């Protein structure tokens, strides 16, 4: 950037008065880009299930309703797509609340083992149906974290849900935890499809998916990890991933440890 300022002093004035304002709009236009991308993503995500619902409803109305086999099939699809819209809206509202700082977190000290056990319990039947083994190993029964219980359950539930979803039959999902200096590290590991390193950086972005079709098929909204990241940060912790394609994944959550 080169600037040349020429000015002729007015009679009686020592020099011309110049006010120079330089605005760096780089950050602003980047933010605008992110916003536009988000709106485009949201529209796309909402339109897809809506188009399916409309298409099935129209087919039913144009006669398929009189064919019991097809009508049940189409109504089931409509029901599934409506569920998908519901999860998407729930996740978007949840994320917006966390981002706006409106989520009231109640941070307190709590034992970790029972929360891990009940989070794993929620996925028992899903895992059993897929022939995936669920394990938990928490070295110290007395391990305590400082967290908001509902958010911690949400974080663990989301990571376990993904681990079960992206692990084929006969695989294994485990939750382990250990204490580090003033922190507790919780690891959700699976023996599933894994994630190639080039995706790791963007994995926690809203709507980022490694395989869009597979995620949709499994009922994902693409917002789960973004919510996990925000909740961890709100509790003074963080979440990281280490994974290789075909070799399973490990998601690590660190939270402040509770003093005894
Ligand atoms: P989704 O609803 O699509 O599962 P998430 O935000 O939870 O969205 O995850 C983003 C993407 O990260 C997923 O679409 C999937 O590609 C990848 N992913 C997340 N967890 C795992 C896992 N345990 N194993 C393999 N891939 C995963």
TrEMBL record:
UniProt subcellular location: Cell membrane; Membrane raft
Portion of the full-length sequence here: 343 to 602 of 602
Organism: Adhaeretor mobilis
Highest taxon of source: Bacteria
Domain Histidine kinase as annotated: residue spans: 41-259
Record's protein name: histidine kinase
């Amino acid at each position: 950037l080169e600037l040349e300022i020429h000015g002729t002093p007015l009679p009686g004035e020592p020099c011309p008065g110049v006010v120079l304002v330089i605005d760096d709009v780089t950050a602003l236009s980047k933010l605008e880009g992110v916003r536009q991308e988000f709106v485009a993503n949201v529209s796309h995500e909402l339109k897809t299930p809506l188009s399916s619902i409309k298409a099935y409803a129209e087919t039913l109305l144009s006669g398929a309703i009189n064919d019991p086999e097809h009508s049940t099939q189409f109504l089931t699809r409509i029901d599934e797509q409506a569920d998908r819209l519901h999860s998407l809206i729930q996740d978007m509202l949840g994320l917006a609340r966390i981002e706006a700082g409106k989520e009231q977190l109640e941070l307190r000290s709590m034992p970790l083992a029972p929360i891990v056990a009940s989070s794993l319990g929620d996925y028992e039947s899903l895992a059993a149906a897929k022939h995936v083994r669920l394990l938990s190993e928490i070295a110290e029964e007395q391990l305590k974290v400082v967290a908001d219980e509902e958010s911690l359950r949400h974080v663990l539930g989301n990571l376990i849900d993904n681990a079960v979803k992206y692990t084929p039959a006969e695989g294994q999902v485990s939750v382990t935890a250990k204490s580090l200096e003033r922190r507790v590290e919780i690891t959700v590991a699976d023996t599933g499809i894994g994630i190639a390193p080039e995706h790791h950086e963007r994995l926690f972005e809203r709507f980022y998916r490694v395989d869009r079709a597979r995620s949709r098929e499994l009922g994902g909204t693409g917002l789960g990890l973004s919510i996990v990241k925000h909740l961890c940060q709100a509790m003074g912790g963080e979440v990281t991933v280490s994974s290789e394609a075909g070799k399973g994944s490990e998601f690590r959550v660190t939270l402040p440890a509770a003093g005894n």
